[in-house]
Amino acid sequence: GEDVEQSLFLSVREGDSSVINCTYTDSSSTYLYWYKQEPGAGLQLLTYIFSNMDMKQDQRLTVLLNKKDKHLSLRIADTQTGDSAIYFCAESCDNYGQNFVFGPGTRLSVLP
Amino acid sequence: DVKVTQSSRYLVKRTGEKVFLECVQDMDHENMFWYRQDPGLGLRLIYFSYDVKMKEKGDIPEGYSVSREKKERFSLILESASTNQTSMYLCASSLGQYNEQFFGPGTRLTVL
Q1: Would you place residue A51 in the very low, low, confident or very high pLDDT band (cuts 50, 70, 90)?
Q2: How far is CA A61 from CA A29, A103, B62, B71, in A?
Q3: Most buried residue among A37, B17, B106, B110 by CB atoms closer than 10 A?
Q4: Helix or strand or coil: residue B85?
Q5: How much of chain A exceeds pLDDT 90, in percent?
């Protein structure tokens, strides 16, 4: 079945860039997503990328997609303490794009 | 703004009790989902529903059932709670294909 993998933890210093990596298995995924979960809250969509794109930029966020290697990354520029959260990578995993498979989440800690 | 609400933020039940978790969305979304979230495992899909009275099993349906009698409400039922069902339960809804899933704040269930 489909599988999405991420490293579980990442620590960065405030002001540095953070790069969160994800690998997925379903080469037919049409969209790939990044969700953010702050403490005590549900998940919120941060950004997504269509599978025929290599890169998408949205303010401090840059998403890179390497479809050949099935590798997705999220770069956060000028990381702030408010960026501390768990970040989930997800792929749409069925022909209708209604079901997602989520990775285990990367807990980002931003150190002052 | 889409709002997904869950009936309880925290719930403590005893082994063998019947447990109901309620989820309500206010944006007329077709799809609704129940996930459980466990550290290091990410989100795992329990059940989902594409329409009223329709339900489909996800990856881990054992020990759970669901009910969708009205479009806006999706209930998760634990017929006889067990300690291995202690977890965070997240409800989500989406409009249709490839659309963002909107999440509720989660219910942290502890089964003693």
Answers
A1: confident
A2: 21, 19, 39, 35
A3: B106
A4: helix
A5: 70
CB A48 within 8 A of CB A64: no
**How many alpha carbons fall within 13 Å on the CB side of residue B61?**
10
Residue of B32, B34, B95, B98 to mutate when probing chain A, most A C-beta within 10 A: B98
Q: Give the pLDDT of residue A2.
A: 65
Residue B53 has pLDDT above 70, yes or no: yes
Contact A44/B at CB under 8 A: yes
* Closest by CA position to B38, among listed B77, B73, B89: B89
Q: What is the largest CA-CA distance in chain A?
A: 44
pLDDT on residue A41? 86
- What does the alpha-carbon distance between residue A18 and residue A74 come to, in Å, rounded to a whole number? 8
Amino acid at B62: E
Is A105's CB within 8 Å of B98's CB?
Answer: no
- A75, A18 Cβ separation under 8 angstroms: yes
Phi-psi region of A37 (alpha: psi -120 to 50; beta: other; left: phi over 0): beta
Burial category of B49 from C-beta neighbours within 10 Å (exposed 0-12, middle 13-18, buried 19 and up) = buried
pLDDT of residue B40: 81
> How many Cβ atoms from other residues are within 10 Å of residue A46's Cβ?
17
Q: Beta-carbon neighbour count of residue B97 at 10 Å?
A: 15
